[in-house]
Structure formats: C-alpha cells, structure tokens
C-alpha cells in the first residue's frame, strides 16, 4: 500500500475546491521548464484553461501550469515533481482571488489601517491577506507589500482565519503607477527596425504577447540581482524579437515599467536596453 505525499494530498484538496495548484521545489519556486519548453521555445502556455501552442504535459511555465484538474495533478508527468516538492503553490487569479503579501510587521501595521479586514494567513515573516476578486499582480507596490493574483503564484500556507472580503479599490489602486515622463524619450529611437515589414514571423499572433507578458513576470518576480535580471530579460526579448520588426514602443514601455516597479531607474533601463542591443549587434 502506498501513501499519498502530503503536498499532493493538499493539492488535490485545493483542486476539489476549484483552486489551480502546482508543486513548488526548494526555495518555494516552480520547477524549471523541460527541454522542449526551455527558453519558451514552445511558445508558452497562457494557462491551463485556454489552449495554447505548448502541448507539454509537464509542470512547465510556472504559474501557467497551475490546474484544478485532478487527472493532470496525479499524472505521471507530474509525479516526479510531487516527489521533490517541498510545498504547494496556487494561482490566485485562476481561483478569482488576490493575495496581498505583507512581508514584515511594518507592512502588517499599514494594512490594518489602510485595508478592510479579510481572511488572514500567517507566513514565515508576515501575513497573506486574501480577497475575493482577481486583478493585476505586482511586486513592491509599497515597502514590504506584493500583490499576487493573475499571472502569479502564491504558496499555500493553510486556510487562514477570518471572513474573506471582496477585493477593495484600495488594493487595486496599489498597482496604478503614474507614468514616468522620462520613459518614452530614452528608447523611442532604439526599437529595432526589422526586415519583415513589421510582421512577426513566429508561429501564432499571440506569440509576442506571451513573450512580453512572461518577461514582465520574470522581472516582477526578481527578488535579488534585479539589475542582472532586467538585462538578461531584455537580452532574451531582443534575441527572439529584435530582428523581426514586431517590437513597438508600447512593448518596450511595458518592460521598462516592470523594471521601474522593481526599483530600476529610467537611466538603468535605458542602459540595459542599449547594452542588450549592442551585445546582439542590433
């Protein structure tokens, strides 16, 4: 007789409630992509509910792998990940939820005065405040406060206590950033001009959008070495799309905005973009 690992048992219980789950490895991070999905070569996977170009059955593409389908959760393709998993993650936005991640006592004190009470889950250093309703995810919306909802994952730490409130405007407002007047000028003249007549030659019209969205997520989730992460992300985007003529100022602005939300200055963003262009000979 075999026993179900605790992480897998927890995941199946959550899935039965309609919460999309995924295994997390040491460091509380998702498992890396399989060789077929490395560097997003498969085109990515928007989520487990919307068909995309990726047909990989494994635990690839981080939050986008999260599913509430028990057949997928217990499948052989996921078995090795569950054996190595140290905890369970879930996609809050996929469950119609938003997690306000409060990292320290100061952040908790702020939330108690600025936000309506809701379900609360203790974390290692602070608390998760969970609201009913999905929204855009963003890290560092204020000191010690991250927002985890769509295109993000959170660690499951138990059911928590308290009644879950509806997502308030005060939380939505945290992700609204004033546009920087310095953003358009630095890179308006350095978006590569491709030779493909402005048409992206990749396999699906949504390929570029998924690539930019995943690049934004990669920058947003950087916890350390932010400068290096921003540069490597810019380099990856340009290596894929820099010669096909499909990048626009709007796409680059999104990447710059994500980087500035992690503390990068407009000058750092411009320098990283220029260095990536130079490295690739664009």
Please describe what this structure looks like.
There is one protein chain. Helices cover 35% and strands 13% of the residues. The protein is of the alpha+beta class.
Q: Which terms summarize this structure?
A:
alpha+beta; globular; 282 residues; 5-stranded antiparallel sheet; 35% helix; 4-stranded antiparallel sheet; 9 strands
Summarize the structure.
The chain is an alpha+beta fold and 282 residues long. The chain contains 10 helices and 9 strands.
Topology:
Elements: H1 6-16, E1 21-25, E2 29-30, H2 70-73, H3 76-84, E3 87-90, E4 97-102, H4 105-114, E5 119-122, E6 127-132, E7 138-142, E8 145-148, E9 154-155, H5 169-172, H6 184-187, H7 207-220, H8 226-241, H9 249-261, H10 266-280
Antiparallel strand pairs: 1-2, 1-3, 3-9, 4-6, 4-8, 5-6, 7-8
Quote the distance from N terminus to C terminus.
60 Å
**Helix content estimate:** 25-40%
Order of helices and strands: HEEHHEEHEEEEEHHHHHH
What average pLDDT do the residues reach?
Answer: 83
The tally of strands reads 9
What is the makeup of the main sheet? 5 strands, antiparallel
* General shape: globular
Low-confidence stretches: 179-189
Number of helices: 10
Strand content: 5-15%
Radius of gyration: 20 Å
Task: Going across the biggest sheet, name each strand in turn.
Answer: 5-6-4-8-7
């Amino acid at each position: 007789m075999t026993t179900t690992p605790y992480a897998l048992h927890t995941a199946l219980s959550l899935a039965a409630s309609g919460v999309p789950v995924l295994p997390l490895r040491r460091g509380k991070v998702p498992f890396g992509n399989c060789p077929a999905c490395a560097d997003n070569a498969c085109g990515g996977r928007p989520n487990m509910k919307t068909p995309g170009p990726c047909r990989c059955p494994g635990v690839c593409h981080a939050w986008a792998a999260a599913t509430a389908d028990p057949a997928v959760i217990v499948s052989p393709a996921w078995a090795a990940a569950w054996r190595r998993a140290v905890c369970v993650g879930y996609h809050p936005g996929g469950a119609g939820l938003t997690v306000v991640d409060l990292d320290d006592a100061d952040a908790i004190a702020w939330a108690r005065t600025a936000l309506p009470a809701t379900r609360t889950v203790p974390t290692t250093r602070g608390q998760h405040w969970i609201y009913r309703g999905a929204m855009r995810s963003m890290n560092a919306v204020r000191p010690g406060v991250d927002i985890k909802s769509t295109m993000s994952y959170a660690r499951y730490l138990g059911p928590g206590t308290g009644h879950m409130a509806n997502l308030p405007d005060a939380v939505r407002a945290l992700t609204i950033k004033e546009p920087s007047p310095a953003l358009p000028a630095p890179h308006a003249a350095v978006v590569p001009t491709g030779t493909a007549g402005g048409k992206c030659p990749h396999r699906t019209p949504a390929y570029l959008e998924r690539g930019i969205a995943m690049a934004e997520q990669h920058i947003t989730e950087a916890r350390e070495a932010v400068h290096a992460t921003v540069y490597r992300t810019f380099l990856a985007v340009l290596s894929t799309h820099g010669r096909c003529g499909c990048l626009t100022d709007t796409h680059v602005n999104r990447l710059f905005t994500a980087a500035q939300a992690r503390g990068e200055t407009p000058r750092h963003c411009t320098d990283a973009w220029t260095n990536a262009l130079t490295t690739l000979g664009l």
